[in-house]
Specification:
2 domains, 10 strands
Length: about 270
């Protein structure tokens, strides 16, 4: 962290912020608080300008080519699962999915659109690589193959692709932000909507939640959400197998079994 001290000065207190990459830090000096990250995507500047992430304070390029970004570190809390039912989440997601500025920036960064065929092909290859033999996964893949052409959707948008409740920050001033954009893609909005509704919102409330988001609950949307939730759940089984997380793998396999029953897939 010496390089951070060189940028900020010795009077700043710097501590790791956790995370998978180890490239994020908190920095404090008197009443000033910053969240620092190394080699964040240029996408962060547009997210900040749109008010979707905490404000970007500065960006600095190091001699070695690394880019350091500093954002306001805001006091607040992660959302609880029950908070995901509320209007602010639906409205913030609508803002993201309808933003032309975000879409234009991801296109400039040469992000290709994600389509069901590529997801399915990658999933099948991953299952082969990990040598997973499971009746539930076989049934899931058969369903995904059968319906892959039916879930095509032309109006691709910017999707976050990980709307877990702990990626939402509610500040003490009641401002809602969505953080951790490393996995963002141009895709069918159902790739965000499906996991959110399936994991956090009772099915009888889907229509109400979607009305706050600004979309009707059509049969087509139901099919697309089911397809993406199923694909995601299978991918989590594969991911935990690859990581050797046996306990977590069994938990997700139980979730997959329950999802197959819910979708009436035999």
């Amino acid at each position: 962290m010496n390089w951070l001290g060189q940028i900020l000065g010795s009077e700043w207190h710097i501590s790791p912020a956790g995370g998978a990459t180890g490239d994020a830090y908190f920095a404090t000096h008197n009443d000033q608080k910053l969240f620092l990250k190394r080699n964040t995507s240029p996408f962060l500047a547009v997210l900040s300008a749109e008010g979707i992430v905490p404000k970007l304070v500065w960006t600095k390029r190091m001699e070695n080519g690394d880019v350091i970004t500093a954002q306001h570190w805001l006091s607040g809390r992660e959302l609880k699962p029950k908070d995901m039912n509320d209007r602010p989440v639906a409205e913030q997601l609508r803002k993201i999915h309808t933003s032309k500025e975000l879409l234009d920036m991801l296109k400039r960064l040469e992000k290709h659109s994600l389509d069901p065929e590529s997801i399915l092909m990658h999933l099948k290859q991953s299952i082969l690589n990990e040598q997973i033999d499971s009746q539930d996964i076989s049934r899931a893949i058969q369903y995904l193959e059968k319906h892959v052409e039916a879930v095509h959707f032309e109006d691709k948008v910017v999707c976050h692709c990980d709307l877990n409740h702990n990626n939402w920050l509610l500040t003490d001033e009641n401002q809602l932000y969505l953080i951790d954009w490393d996995g963002a893609m141009i895709a069918d909005p159902a790739i965000d909507l499906g996991p959110l509704l399936y994991h956090y919102v009772e099915e009888e409330n889907w229509e109400c939640w979607l009305s706050m988001y600004g979309a009707p609950l059509t049969d087509n949307l139901r099919k697309r959400m089911a397809w993406y939730v199923l694909a995601e759940t299978v991918s989590f089984v594969v991911w935990h197998k690859r990581k050797g997380n046996e306990k977590a793998q069994k938990e997700v396999q139980a979730e997959l079994n329950a999802l197959l029953k819910r979708l009436n897939i035999h």
